[in-house]
Amino acid sequence: MKNSIKLTLMAAFAGLALAAVTANANTITLGNVTTVPNGGGSDWTYSYAFANSSLTIGDFFTINDFGLATVVAAPVGPAPFWTFSQALTGPNSLPATDNATVLNVTFTWTGATTPVPDGVFTFTLHSALGIFPQIHDYTSLDQSFSNGLDSKAIGPVNGPNTTPDGGSAVALLGIALAGIEGARRVFRARKP
Predict the structure, then answer these.
(1) Does residue 62 sit within a domain?
(2) Is residue 1, in this structure, part of any structural domain at all?
């Protein structure tokens, strides 16, 4: 009994140690900074952070289902070797949610293999949609500076609301028109 408790505790501590090493391995993570109205749409400024990272050609970060976008301020860190693209699918890492009918935003590393100092950088995208946010998945791929292995991250990030409202606007319009028609009938009935 004592040996099984010792083995269980040792396994638990080994698991915690492995989780601590994995959590600090490396990653590109995205986060929101600001959203502001601009030109009938909105500008979305994101931060992206590196931890124990190295970049090789083809590494990327993608915001799934952002919709049509233009770059207001491109990513500049660690150097200006990021290429912007949009596609309906990929690149992404399952199990990220990716609607094949809404454009993704991807920045792909095109520079030489380079270690990246830990730090936080920003980029800004413009959307023709308003500032009302919707949660999107982001995915990223870079290399661990320590061991050179691929590191993928998936997480939630806010972006423009690209989901149709499901007809609530049409329903409200119908109610308003019915009310106007009712008022018109009352007004006509009172006329001499």
Answers:
(1) yes
(2) no
